[in-house]
Amino acid sequence: EFDGESGLAATAGDDSTVKVWQVRNGKLNHVATDPTAHTDGVRGLLLDGSSGKLVSAGDNGLLKLWKIETGAMALVSTKEAAHKGVVFTLQFDRADFLGQQSGMLLSSGMDGVIRGWRLTENGELESANLSMQDDHQDGILVLQYSAETGVVLSAGIDGIIQAWQLEGDKFCLLATSTEAHSGWIR
Q1: According to the 3-state scheme, what is the secondary structure of 32-53?
Q2: How far apart are CA 33 and CA 185, in angstroms?
Q3: Spatial distance between the Cα atoms of 88 and 90, rounded to a whole number of angstroms
Q4: Bridge-partner residues for 56, per DSSP?
Q5: Strands (E), 101-139
Q6: Which pLDDT tens digit goes with each residue over 159-174?
Q7: Who's near 179: CB < 8 A, 6+ residues apart?
Q8: pTM, whole model, 2 decimals?
Q9: In the beta sheet, which residues pair with residue 153?
Q10: How far apart are the first and last CA of the chain?
Q11: Residue pair 48/94 in contact by the 8 Å Cβ criterion
């Protein structure tokens, strides 16, 4: 994950480690590491360099919100069982969610469900209690979100692409392509 405005980058992998880097003057400098960020692999990252916040998603369904500080990553909030199994992808409107503590973070995973999250006044992640009809049959690997239009695109293991309209607390299915690909969509 890379935030071009701040020059901050975040990386993660199967070793459960999350690292933050600074790209400056043609160099990649290490900023912070949490070697035990998750108990297993990390699949998803979202970074907002201007607010110094990072969200990580793990193989065990866990979401974590971090504050990036010089030389350290401070854990702000943990959401256990955000999904049943692996969380593959995260999306949000950068200006709304992390920068101004409003708006919505969306996550998807192996359970084939899109979930919404909001920040409380004390910076904790809480469920936005969104309902969804016609979930994907398998895991969702791709998620794109336009806060301006409220449209969410999802695609995944089932080879299906779906377009959703976020209306209040519901995802309303707009369109589906059941034969988009003959396998996983990334």
Answers
A1: EEECCCCCCCEEEEEEECCCCE
A2: 31
A3: 7
A4: 45, 64
A5: 105-109, 114-119, 125-127, 131-132
A6: 999 999 988 888 889 9
A7: 159
A8: 0.87
A9: 144, 163
A10: 16
A11: yes
